[in-house]
Design a protein that fits this description.
Elements (H helix, E strand, L loop, with lengths): L16 E3 L15 E9 L2 E9 L2 H21 L8 H8 L1 E2 L4 H16 L9 H10 L11 H7 L9 E3 L2 E3 L12 H15 L5 E5 L2 E5 L8 E7 L2 E11 L2 E7 L26 E8 L2 H14 L1 H10 L4 E6 L4 E3 L10
Helix pairs in contact: 1-6, 6-7, 7-8
Catalytic activity: L-threonyl-[protein] + FAD = FMN-L-threonyl-[protein] + AMP + H(+)
Pfam families: ApbE (PF02424)
Protein name: FAD:protein FMN transferase
Length: 339
C-alpha cells in the first residue's frame, strides 16, 4: 500500500507475522453450528483477511463486506499519495480545516506515541524519507544523503509543531507527515469495530501482518499466531495464543531503500539516519494501532530503551530479535506463547 513503499518509515514489516492454523476446521463445531467465514482482498497495497465466527454464511459475508468498506474508507482518508486526500492537502498547504474527525483522532494519538518513545516515533518524518528515497531514485546519486542535507531536513521533523484546534490541523511550512506507521493498524481497529457493531464477537482482521483478534474459534480455543523466523521463511520462531488483543511486527530484514545500499527503511526521526538497532520487534497490545506504532518505536529505540518503554506500559508486551539473533522478551510475553 502507499504506507508500504520504500519511502515510508513508520510501518511494521508485513511478513513478520504469519497466521498459523487459523482455520484448520471450518465445518460445524458447536450446537449452534458456528463456522469461520473468511475473505481475503488486496487493500492498502497489502493482503487483508477478515474472518468471522457466524452461523449464517449470507450474513457473515455481508458483515465482512462492511468491514472491508471501512478499511477502504480509512485508506482513502489517510493516503498521502492521493492529492485529493485530506492528509495530502495538509502536506501541501500546511493546514486543513474541518478535517475528518478520524484523521484528527489518529494524528492526535500519534503524538502520544511520540511522547512515550521520546521522539523515536514521529509522523512528521516524511521529509527525511523523501530525502533518502531521492538518493536512490532513478537519476539519484545512489549514495546516502550528506550530514548537512540530513541536518537541514531534520529542521522539518517535529511532531510538537503539529497543531490541532478542534477539527483544524496545521503545521510549519515545509513539514510533511506520513501515517504509514499507524494507518494500517487504525484500519484494522476500525474493521474490528465494524464487525462488533454487526454483532460479531469472535473473529479477526489481519492486514499484511498487523492483526487484531477477538473472541475465540468455534471450538473455544484461542486464535493461533506464528512469528516468522527471519532466517527461515515460513518457519515459526514462536507461536502465540491470542484473544482480544492485537499483534504487529516491525523489522528491517525484508525491505530496504535500495537493494544496493541495503540500508534499513526504518529511519530514526531524531537523527535522520536508518535504524539498525534490531532485526525485528513484535508488540502485543490492546489495539492494532498501538501495536503498530509501538513496534516501530521499539525497533528504533533498540533493545534497552525499547524494552524499558514497553515495561512501563500496561497491557503491552514485546519480543525483540537483536542483530546477533538473541531473542529478548518483555516480562509478560511468555504468557501468550503456546506451551
Amino acid at each position: 500500500m502507499r504506507y508500504k513503499t520504500v519511502a515510508i518509515v513508520l510501518i511494521a514489516i508485513f511478513t513478520g507475522l504469519l497466521m498459523i492454523n487459523y482455520v484448520l476446521d471450518t465445518g460445524p463445531q458447536t450446537l449452534e453450528e458456528q463456522e469461520i467465514y473468511s475473505q481475503t482482498r488486496s487493500l492498502m497495497d497489502t493482503t487483508v483477511t477478515i474472518s468471522v465466527v457466524n452461523s449464517n454464511e449470507t450474513s457473515a459475508i455481508e458483515i465482512i463486506d462492511r468491514a472491508f468498506e471501512k478499511i477502504s474508507y480509512v485508506d482513502e482518508l489517510m493516503n498521502n499519495y492521493d492529492n485529493s486526500s485530506e492528509i495530502s492537502i495538509l502536506n501541501s498547504e500546511g493546514e486543513v480545516t474541518n478535517a475528518d474527525p478520524e484523521l484528527v483522532s489518529v494524528i492526535s494519538r500519534s503524538t502520544y506515541y511520540s511522547e512515550k518513545s521520546n521522539g523515536a516515533f514521529d509522523i512528521s518524518i516524511q521529509p527525511i524519507l523523501d530525502l533518502w528515497a531521492s538518493k536512490y531514485a532513478p537519476g539519484g546519486t545512489n549514495q546516502p544523503p550528506t550530514s548537512d542535507e540530513i541536518n537541514e531536513t531534520l529542521k522539518l521533523v517535529n511532531y510538537s509543531a503539529i497543531m490541532i484546534d478542534g477539527n483544524n490541523i496545521s503545521m510549519k511550512k515545509g513539514m510533511k507527515i506520513t501515517l504509514g506507521g499507524v494507518a494500517k493498524g487504525y484500519a484494522v481497529d476500525a474493521a474490528i469495530e465494524s464487525l462488533r457493531s454487526d454483532g460479531i464477537t469472535s473473529g479477526f482482521v489481519n492486514a499484511g501482518g498487523d492483526g487484531r483478534y477477538i473472541g475465540t474459534k468455534p471450538d473455544g480455543t484461542q486464535w493461533r499466531v506464528g512469528l516468522q523466523n527471519p532466517d527461515k521463511n515460513g518457519d515459526a520462531l514462536t507461536i502465540m495464543d491470542i484473544q482480544d488483543v492485537a499483534v504487529a511486527t516491525s523489522g528491517n530484514y525484508e525491505r530496504y531503500f535500495s537493494d544496493e545500499a541495503k540500508v534499513s527503511h526504518i529511519a530514526d526521526p531524531r537523527t535522520g539516519y536508518p535504524s539498525s538497532n534490531l532485526i525485528s520487534s513484535t508488540v502485543i497490545a490492546k489495539t492494532a494501532m498501538d501495536a503498530d506504532a509501538l513496534a516501530t518505536s521499539v525497533f528504533i529505540l533498540g533493545q534497552e530503551d525499547g524494552l524499558a518503554m514497553i515495561e512501563e506500559l500496561e497491557d503491552v508486551e514485546c519480543l525483540i530479535i537483536t542483530n546477533d539473533k538473541e531473542i529478548i522478551k518483555s516480562s509478560g510475553f511468555s504468557s501468550y506463547e503456546n506451551s
